[in-house]
Amino acid sequence: MRVYTAHLRADAAPILVPEGFAWGALVFGPFWLLAHRAWIAGVLALCGFVLIAALPGLPARWLLALVLAWALGLWGNDLRRWSLAARGYLLAHVVAAPDRDSALARLLDRRPDLTAAALA
User: Fold this and answer.
1) pTM attached to this predicted model
2) Which of 81, 96, 102, 106 sits 20 to 30 Å CA-CA off 65?
């Protein structure tokens, strides 16, 4: 079972964010954040990688880049939640389901008023 947080805004479909490690954030870093519309966090992470690349000394750069990538993997979904809160979404529910589609079905079963927004 996977745990998802459901974020709602009056004029938008619900967004489900999984709990746990974000492998996409580990591998793709700031581009993963930008793809999930976490603009501020994505730009800051990209600036972090650029600053690390500008540091002298190859071993220190690789180690810092790995630490930043690992941190993005650990906190990538939390950064998405922070970005959603900044855009006006509210944390409304926590849903446990085996996959995202099942989680959405459970959310809509619990909150039928969200069906029109989810299908739009």
Assistant:
1) 0.88
2) 81
CA distance 39 to 55: 25
pLDDT, tens digit (0-9, with 9 covering 90-100), for 8-53: 998 889 999 999 999 999 999 999 999 999 999 999 999 999 999 9
Tokens of 46: 């990209």
Count of C-beta atoms within a 10 Å radius of residue 102: 15
Please, which residues have CB within 8 angstroms of residue 43's CB and are 6 or more apart in sequence? 30, 34
| Count of beta carbons in the 10 Å neighbourhood of residue 32 | 22
Rounded-to-integer distance, Cα 64 and Cα 10, Å? 41
Longest dimension (CA), the chain: 57
